[in-house]
Amino acid sequence: MIRPILRYGEDVLHRPAADIDEITPEVEALIDDMIDTMYAASGVGLAAPQVGVPLRLFVADASSGQEAGALIVMINPTFIERDGVQREDEGCLSVPGFNAAVPRPSRAVIRGRDRDGTSRDVEATGILARAFEHEMDHLEGSLFLDRLRGVRREMMLRKIGKLRRTGKW
Ligand code: NI
Prior knowledge:
Elements (H helix, E strand, L loop, with lengths): L24 H16 L4 E3 L9 E4 L11 E12 L2 E5 L9 E5 L2 E7 L5 E7 H14 L10 H16 L4
Bound molecules: nickel (II) ion.
């Protein structure tokens, strides 16, 4: 089931998410819905707070559903390693219509549980490393534009504020 994706300004997007203690049927349904929602929106990643659930869970697929086996489900993820730097244009399903170059590690290793509860380490480079970092930020209540500084960030916030005030957000 596709769930609505919340947009910048909703409280749940701006506070840290909590660990998942147990993979209940509700959590499994949430995972299925997040996968459906990510693919329906042609995204490469989606974090639980984006559908209004403040739990440490994200799904990612750098191929956007084009490659079998590319789907990653991460429960209670933590970074094990991060190195290098890449700077590419990045957007977010919760900030539609905006994008900006954000510095990210070029390689990341994440440890988390998959939907069966099995602990996994996943190594990523390129777009997947960027997606990992982006989704991990969501779990800390941070969005990509929070990583921007100065006038670029202010301009985006001003435009978003205007859209919100006029009911177009
Ligand atoms: Ni995002």
